[in-house]
Amino acid sequence: MSTYVDIHVIQSLPPSCVNRDDSGSPKSAVYGGVRRLRVSSQSWKRAARLYFNNLLDASDVGVRTKRVAELLAARITEDAPDLAESAPNLVGEVFKAAKIKLSAPRKKDGPLESGYLLFLSTSQIARLAELAIAAARGGEALDAKAVKKIFKEAHAVDIALFGRMVADNTDLNIDAACQVAHAISTHAAENEYDFFTAVDDEKSRSEEEDAGAGMMGTVEFSSATMYRYATVNIDMLRHNLGDGQAALRAMEVFIRGFCLSMPTGKQNTFANRTVPEAVVVAVREDQPVSLVGAFEEAVPAQGAHGYVARSVEALARHAATIEDNYGLEPLRSFVVALTDSDAVTLLGERVSFTDLPAQVREAVSPRLPGQEQA
Questions:
Q1: What is the pLDDT of residues 243-273, one digit of tens each?
Q2: 18-26 contacts: CB < 8 A, separation 24 or more?
Q3: Is the Cβ–Cβ distance between 180 and 44 less than 8 Å?
């Protein structure tokens, strides 16, 4: 029976535009017949990946790029300067063995590129370079099985969590151990417009010039209390990483990264660097359970009162209703909250965020083979 770790977050966003659509407007969605502010799952997954750089060594973080051939050629040249001239050909042989097509880049005379973003760990790039160098110096053809083996082993934490799709060779695909929902506001949210002007410093100093602005424009923004949800299949994570301890470490990193990361859209304009008002982490053995249904009926406006406390209360009520009617009760549940209320108590065991990953690890560890005494 699989083990799942569900993460529920209530987080207040001040005026901001962290995730824009093609017209520059904050993304939105209709849910429960009401327009909500929305932040896409892809946006927050990238934010979490960037946050991983604060928690992991470079060797444990993947690189997602079309320019992977350039990275591999640079690594071959670094490890074997005498093979610098033949590095592009060696790279071509590596990707030919992996059945991944490379094509000419848009930039003239640039290095070959993959036709799509390719996700590889830095350790995989290093091992591919080592294999190519050994084949070149031994005068032998690359072993296709050895190349594919490298693609399938020593995955970076973010690749193990978020998966990898290789369009040219589905054998190299990695199923994601983590699912992330689109974040939506718990209440109705409308976009607003900020009209701005920028003063020309030199022009403003001249008595002969008018006092008009050097430029002007508008920026669209919104603000809301958001519900965010993600779930991690711990058994799949262990499979992807090949080790129980590595899976537990990756789970801890994801909890920190998902909760504390923030998409970077318009951050210099709005400085919307908030932390969650409430985090609920549930360890389950039945199935992942999103609590977004708590907000299908939007939390109503209530004068000068905000939405956070009532959103947490709605979350607690919905969790209890699911448990009572479906019997889907988590094995353990932990709560980090900035406020005190009965709703917080109902959601689980109160812990500090500093202790949260270790507490979840302690609950999950006995459920992974070979980790009972870890």
A1: 999 999 999 999 999 999 999 999 999 999 9
A2: 18/43, 18/262, 18/263, 18/264, 18/265, 18/266, 18/267, 18/272, 19/43, 19/263, 19/265, 20/265, 20/266, 24/220, 25/191, 25/220, 26/191, 26/220, 26/221, 26/222
A3: yes
